[in-house]
Structure formats: C-alpha cells, structure tokens
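Notebook entry, structure prediction.
Reason for the run: the old model in the group folder had no record of what sequence produced it. Starting over properly, with the input documented here first.
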Amino acid sequence: MISNTLPLSLTDNPILSQWIAFEEKGRVRIATGKVEIGQGILTAMTQIAAEELDVTPEQVRMVSGETDVSPAEYFTSGSYSVAVGGAAIRLVCAEVRSLFLDRAAEALGCKASELSVEGGKFLRAGKDTGRDYWSMSGEIKLDRRASGTAPTKLPSTYRIVGKSLPRLDLPAKVAGAAFIHDIAPEDVVHARVLRRPWRHARLVAFDEAAVRKAAKAPVDTLREGDFVAFTGASELAVSRAAEAARASARWEGGMPAPDNIGDREWLKAQPAKSRTVENGLPGRAQGRVVEAEYSRPFLTYGSIGPACALAEFKDGALKVWSHTQGPSIQRDWLARALGMETKQVTVFHRQGAGAYGHNTADDAAFDACYIATRMPGRTIRVQWPREDEFLAAPISTAMAIKLRAVLDDENKPADWTIEIWSPPHAQRPGMNGNSNFTGAEALPNPPPQKELNDIGDDRGGGATRNGVAIYDLPRHRLIHHMIPGAPLRTSSLRGLGAWANVYAIESFIDELAEAAGEDPVSYRLALLSDPRPHRVVETAAQMSGWFDKRNLGEGRALGFGFARYKNIASFAAVVAEVEVDQDVRLKRIWCAADAGLVISPDGAKNQIEGGIIQGASFAMRERVRFEGGKVATATWADYPILRFSDIPEIDIELIDNPNEPTLGLGEASVGPTGAAIGNAVARALGKRIRDLPLTRDRIAATLLAE
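New structure, fully documented this time:
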C-alpha cells in the first residue's frame, strides 16, 4: 500500500530522523509526540514500528513526549493517536526499511527484492549477509524529508500488528513506580497553591498566623497578586498551610457562577454567537412535525489521582515533568506565559492517573514552573489536593439540544434540524491564542485573553461534534449557539460535545421510531444505506438478541445507541439492558465496533470497555453543582461516579476490517452507551428522561410529571 497524502503528524514533522534512530546496537529508537494516558498507545506504536521494520517488539525503544527528542504532535486527544500518529510511524518505518534495503542491495550487487529482513538483519536466500540496520546506520542519512511513497506492508502479511501483545506500561504500574507522583528527587521542595473560588476573584486577605500555626513546620509563603503558594521541605506542612489559608481567605469581585448555571433554560437565555450550517436539498418539507429537547450538565474530570508536576529552573533552562496530553504545546505556552524562549523549556511526559481531556495537569505544571523560577536550582513538586481538583479544574460544559424533524409519508425524516446551545469546549493551553493556565490568570499582570471560539468543524468540532446525524437525511440544518461569556473555564472532556449530541440524536431516533410504530433498530437500519454502519447495527442487535427479547418483565428493557465518532472515526453500536425502580441498574451491555485495521485487539477492547464505563457514569451519575458562586461538589460523596460494583458484564465484538484504515477508537463508545442506557430507561419506565443524569431524583420527577 502506498500513501498518497501524509498524515498531519508527518506533515508537521517531516524529517525521518525526528522519528527514528539506530543509536544502540540491536535496538531501534522510535520517537512519538503521542503519550501514554492509559490507552496502551505505546504498545500499539511499538507493534506498528516493529512490523514495518521487521524487528521484534523487544528491539524497539519508544521515546514518548520528550520535547527535545519527540516530534511535536499536538495533543494526544480526539482518538487521533493511532489513526494519525501511528500512520506517521508506519510510513517512516516503511521508508527507512526501503532505504536500507536499497543500500544493502547495492553493496551486495543484487536486487532489493532478493533480500529480506529478520530481527533487523538483512538476509539473502534466508542466509545472513552480515549486514543489519546498525552496521549500516552510518551509510544512510536520515536527516531527509519523508516522501510517504515507500510501500507499507499488506495486512495479509502482518505477524505483529493484529496480535494482542502484553501492555508495555503495565509492569511498572503494577509495581507502583510508573506515575509522576512516584518521582521523588532528593532535596525536593513541596508546594501547594491557594486556588481562587471562582474565575478572576481577588484575594482580600487570609490569616497568615493561622497558616503558620497549622503548618507545624517551617513553610514559606510566595505571593504575587492573587497567586499564593506555600513551600517547604515537608509535604504535610505545606498541605496544612494551604488548607488553613483556604479556610480563612476572603475574596471579592470576579465572576461567581449562579446556582442554576447549566440548566437548559439558563443556557438558552445567554448571549451567544450563532451560526447555521445547512446541507441537502433546498426548500422545506411538509408533514408531521416531531420536536424534543435534551440537556447535559457540567461535568468534571474526576481523575482518581490528582494533578502533579515537577520543575527545575537552573542556568536559564527550565525542565518540567508533567502528565500533560500535549508536551510540545505545554512547552510553547509555558514559555510564553513565563516570558521565556521556547528553547529554554524542556517538557518530559510522565504518566498520571487519568487523562481524558483537559484536566489539571497543565495547571500543575505552570504552578511548579512559576515557583521554580522564583527558587532557581531547586526542584519544585506541586500536587493538587482533591478539593482543588473539583474546585479549580477546567469544567466540561453543559449543553442544551433541541431536535426537530418533519416526517414524510413513510414516517422517515424528510427535514431535520438540530439546535445546540453551549459554551466552548476549547480552553486548553494555546487554544484561541490563550495560555489558559489558572495560575497565570492570578498573577498581577496576567497574559492577555483573546476572544473565545469553539473548536472548528474541520477539527471535529467542540459543541457540534457528532451534531450531524449519520443517517440518510435529505435535508439537515445545524444551528450552533456558542456562548462565550460563561463564568467558567469550560474545556475538553472525553468526546467533547459528541456524547451529548449522540444521546440527543439517538434518543430522538427512538422517539421517531415510536411515533412511526416501528422497532427502533429496524427504523435505524432503514435510514442507513451505507453497508458499513448497517453491519455494525445489525451485529450489535444479533449479539444482544434484540429481536428475541420483546418482554423482559416490568421495569426491565433493552435500549440501543449508535454513532460514528466525529463521523470520521470508529463506528460503535451499543445495546444496554437495564432494570429501573428508584435507581437505574445496568444488567448487561453489548457493543459492536468497526475500527478498520485493529493494531491490538485486546487494547481496542479495553478502550471500548473504558468508554462504555465512562459513558454510563456520565449518563447515570455525574453532575457538577454550584452554590455560593463556586463549585459545590468538593468530594467523591458530592460527585459520585460509577463504582466497580455497578459495572455489568460487557460483551464486545470487533468487526474484522483489516483492509480499511485504522480508525480512532478511544471515544467511540461513550455516546452510544449513554444513548443506549437512556433509551432502555425510557422503555422500562414508559416515559423518557431528556435531562441528564438519569438519577433517582430525575426518575421520580419524570414519573410524577403529568
């Protein structure tokens, strides 16, 4: 297979030596800007490189997210890692293999087709030629641009890709030494930062005597503007100091949040920048009209491990250890926020416990870096407490969604409109040209803030992600009301607007099927002319015995959800069986997915399963509440997530499609899972809950409503 276009990662980093080197005898160094955040990506990348180079996975040394070595590949997000980053590694390794084969053939006086590679050694007629990648590395210059024209291997010849290899990242995690929290340099300085209760609040005062008394050990205070940090040799002491400061601090001004922020009517009442995107035949259809409105609340990230970062400023150079999802972006924006040149900053990615969106990793890195510049020569370690994770993390935004369909004579949508109200999902570092570090905002002269916009449709969209239904719709209109003035730092969480849009669209499809008097799965199949999604829907229905389970008993039902993530990544169809009385209980979940060529089946299933569990947690439990101008969910008791005991049996089937390109998978099952649960609950109750989450209070209110 020959690529006609280069993936974005290779376009941005076109030199072969940015990706590969033969520095150590018998080992290949592969560099990637994509980082391990629990998705097994480094194992998959290793498989891709080993396959194309004809070396064993054990011969690959993967260097990830180190800005002085790794290519700058933007964020590890959007389910792009294998589809884009992996595609770049595949092309680079295929081209390097081809270059070495040509050089070996020239030296041996034979054709390249007469040679093969095994374990990095070049063979002729199955016999060792005495040449290998390492002995020839000085003969081939890799500081050249990738052409993307070298043929990659055919899937039918794969020996490593498509196999489930042991995860490379798990041994260290099991041994308790994999995470950034485990880094413990000698003579480290611990630090905690006093957080503002809401955006742009001004610190009037805090009780410094109470802080010193609570610390019970020497602690220094660094204050510049509204940025306050407590530092010392004892982590316990600085933690006590920060807690005492939080309890005594008095704040004024800023942008406190109203208690009803995020409610459907609040969102619809806010000033917005609106636009309309229309597709399909001109004119307006006439016929029966069906309308419905849905909403999702604000969510937080809920990482099991809180944010942590380390930084050292020495001899004008800043070193940063962070569990960021975008090492090169973090480097650039730390430099800007601190008034440095980019070349002064080096970021080393280290793994954290949970990273599925813009969480607090980058904020912790800024905190550590800023303090380090005030304490040159010392290594600063900042760890956020759980309360700050809830209070000061970026917030995944609430959304309101209205759907309207005009049905034709066959009760199919002839005209379709989706209307979305949402603040932007785009306040990661660098987005909209802003630093977006909460610590930087608290400084006396904070970095200037440019106008907010959401993620563009060409990059998958933010609030509009999956807002265009995948079904056969003759006329489609999308109206996007972007709310730029919400008093919160809203940003990216797994799937962004996709899971709410999928929940709304798939719920609405069920409502249309009910209005038509048709089975929900049969109704979907009639709206899918493309055989690929048709097969995914059929497979999920067959797995669950959909058409055989007409009556599961009172309060029990099946529900269906389907989508293609961003309409360009993987397809996923989910069936959920639920039992509902006062609460929703998951009994079983089935999922069929088409991700094209699957690198690691076990890894792919893990990703799908993780998305299912998180999608269920979003739909059933999670909601950020506000009180007194600030986030009122400060503990796990305030912000319940799905527990291990809540997780049902999950069956996953990967549809074999090895000759199709690898598609992003990490976020594909989140939206369909929420939709399947919502549809199952509606069938079990006989009434539909359109505002998430599907809590006991929501169920009671729905059943009591006339």
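Summary: The chain has three domains: 8-161, 182-253+307-383, 399-425+461-704.
The old model has been moved to the deprecated folder.
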